[in-house]
Amino acid sequence: MSQVLVIESSARQQDSVSRQLTAEFVRQWQAAHPQDRVQLRDLAREPVPHLDADLLGGWMTPAEQQSPAEQAALQRSERLTAELLTADVLVLAAPMYNFAIPSTLKAWLDHVLRAGVTFKYTDKGAQGLLQGKRAFVLTARGGVYAGSAMDHQEPYLRQALGFIGIHDVQFVHAEGLNLGGEFAQQGLLKARQRLAELAPAA
Q1: 17 has binding-site annotation
Q2: S-S: 42 plus which of 8, 9, 37, 49, CB 3.0-4.6 Å?
């Protein structure tokens, strides 16, 4: 039995394509892996604060010297990191906002990319500590950006996940959604076809 952690980051609840893709992925995954447990964290409903002095203090200040705010920030980071550590499969759902990921997803990453916990520094450089995990990234994009210099989603997420040891990463892009007509229909159809291939085979 595997633990699947799903991270939603779309600011929209209704009419969100990334949420539609997530729902389809989870249905297909559970049909293929009925014993697996799925945990959902919705960063729009429960936003994670951005990196601030309290969180930095919680990480860097000895426990007996931490302020209440630093303790609370550290506990939040510990909780989010524990969810990631216990997951076997990570699903990130992200619309493209201004060529990149939502700031809420960046804030989540800032809480879980932690030296000594999810990666460590060695004399040969940084080493990820989360080997053996898999990730699926489901994106929704108004235009067509895959493989172009304007795509700052996939390269960043590949680097961030690889930095903590997650190298088995599959991307599913629903592109051209704001171009209307055939472009939007084909973009969504291709994404759904890719989902149908990935979830049962994973």
Answers
A1: yes
A2: 8
Was 2 annotated as part of a binding site? no
- Was 16 annotated as part of a binding site? yes
Q: Residue 37, class by beta-carbon neighbours within 10 Å (0-12 exposed, 13-18 middle, 19+ buried)?
A: middle
- Condensed to tens digits (0 to 9), the pLDDT of residues 41-92 reads 999 999 999 999 999 999 999 999 999 999 999 999 999 999 999 999 999 9
Per-residue model confidence as pLDDT tens digits over 76-133: 999 999 999 999 999 999 999 999 999 999 999 999 999 999 999 999 899 999 999 9
Write down all domains in the chain, each with its CATH number in brackets: 3-201 (3.40.50.360)
178 is in an annotated binding site: no
Residue 97 is labelled as binding a ligand: yes
State yes or no: 77 annotated in a binding site. Answer: no
Q: Are 115 and 77 in contact (CB under 8 A)?
A: no
Q: Is 145 annotated as a binding residue?
A: no
